[in-house]
Design goal:
The structure is a single chain. This protein is of the alpha+beta class. It is 35% helix and 19% strand. The protein is built from ten helices and 13 strands. Strands 1, 2, 3, 4, 5, 6, 7, 8, 9, 10, 11, 12 and 13 form a 13-stranded mixed sheet that branches. Helix 2 (47-58) runs antiparallel to helix 4 (98-111) and helix 6 (205-216) runs antiparallel to helix 8 (260-274). It is globular. The protein starts with a helix and ends in a 6-residue tail after the last helix.
């Protein structure tokens, strides 16, 4: 067995143990805050993504469709990983023909903003750059990404889809005209292509720079609250793959301790992540975020010099964002964090990742799972 195979084998038992635990979600202070998410009309149609998903499904063979479709409440939602070695479900871009790939990107285009789609495609391309750098086209590549569909695309019944692969994971739940897009993982190593097929592509700089800009505005007393440590480890993210049920207490400085200009900057940082979803649905989510701005915490680990590596976290009852400069993994390993390897995660705390709290409420009113 290869070293990579041994790594995958060694980590799978941990993955399986996590999946065997009932979903609870990410909670602070040891308890789930209730009443945060209600089934309601947003006034923003989900018809475009329903039609695009159905169009994608129509391009699949019966075998591909069988491998790609699951029940709306299937455990498949939780089987995602940002690591490259995890065994994926569904149909892969690598096996799709050109018509199927176009339909798959059509699905993503309908669900995402123009920025979110481009970022996703650029992350995929940089995985191709990584294959070039590592000279390993089996483990890395532009097309090593998979799509699964949970439930039947509908404007009334619950359903959703997942894009899953190295450094790119999108979970997209739909109920009526409501959308929950989390967990979302976006990152890259490298973060720019200096040469090769995709030379010139660069990602994750706005997430980096906007977070850094907010940190630069903090006064000395504010820094004392926001900065948890000046010592940056090789990896600090807490809510990546198979971390659906973690206790994460609030830490850092709150929105009500920031001045108006800083609060605006905080909202701009959040919008950088939320804005990966289609524009009108992003506005709905940002309105929800703004209602809890006073209870939104900003925390920082690392230095705040122009070339510093760092981690930051934004945490409120309705959103969790993590940004992390990580140590090198490929093509060569390193022990210290670098700006050349970035991980970001977006979660919905208090039980609504994968839209699970909305789904729970739906089934309370319509007790027919697997509808």
């Amino acid at each position: 067995m290869t070293l990579l195979g041994l790594m995958a084998y060694a980590q799978r038992p941990g993955f399986d143990r996590e999946l065997s635990q009932p979903y609870r979600g990410i909670v602070a202070d040891g308890k789930t805050e209730s009443g945060l998410f209600q089934i309601r009309s947003t006034g923003v149609s989900t018809q475009p993504v329903v039609e695009a998903t159905q169009a994608f499904l129509n391009t699949l063979s019966s075998d591909q469709r069988d491998r790609t479709t699951f029940a709306a409440d299937d455990l498949e939602w939780r089987k995602w990983a940002n690591q490259h070695f995890y065994k994926r479900q569904g149909v892969g871009f690598d096996e799709m023909n050109e018509t199927q790939r176009a339909a798959a990107f059509g699905l993503m285009k309908a669900a995402l903003s123009a920025k979110g789609l481009k970022k996703s495609q650029d992350i995929m391309k940089l995985n191709g750059t990584l294959a070039e750098l590592a000279n390993d086209f089996n483990e890395y590549g532009e097309w090593l990404y998979w799509i699964t569909i949970m439930g039947e695309p509908s404007t009334t019944k619950p359903w959703g889809f997942q894009v899953d692969g190295h450094h790119l994971v999108i979970n997209y739940f739909v109920l009526g005209d409501q959308v929950v897009m989390s967990p979302v993982f976006m990152g890259s190593e490298p973060i720019r292509a200096e040469a090769g097929k995709f030379k010139g592509i660069v990602v994750m700089q706005d997430e980096q720079d906007k977070g850094f800009a907010l940190a630069q505005t903090l006064t000395e007393s504010q820094r004392g609250k926001a900065i948890l440590s000046f010592q940056k480890g090789g990896t600090n993210n807490l809510s990546e793959a198979f971390k659906d049920n973690i206790d994460l207490d609030y830490a850092g400085i709150t929105g009500n301790e920031l001045d108006d200009a800083q609060r605006k900057l905080l909202m701009e940082v959040i919008a950088e992540y939320v804005g990966n979803m289609s524009d009108e649905h992003a506005k709905v989510k940002m309105s929800e975020v703004e209602k809890h701005l006073d209870r939104t915490y900003f925390a920082w680990i690392g230095e705040t010099k122009a070339d510093s590596v760092f981690y930051y976290r934004i945490h409120s009852p309705v959103i969790l964002i993590e940004f992390d400069h990580q140590r090198r993994i490929a093509p060569q390993r390193g022990r210290t964090p670098t700006r050349e390897h970035i991980h970001t995660v977006v979660r919905t705390p208090n039980g609504n990742d994968y839209g699970k709290d909305l789904l729970r409420q739906h089934y309370e009113n319509h007790p027919h799972p697997h509808e």
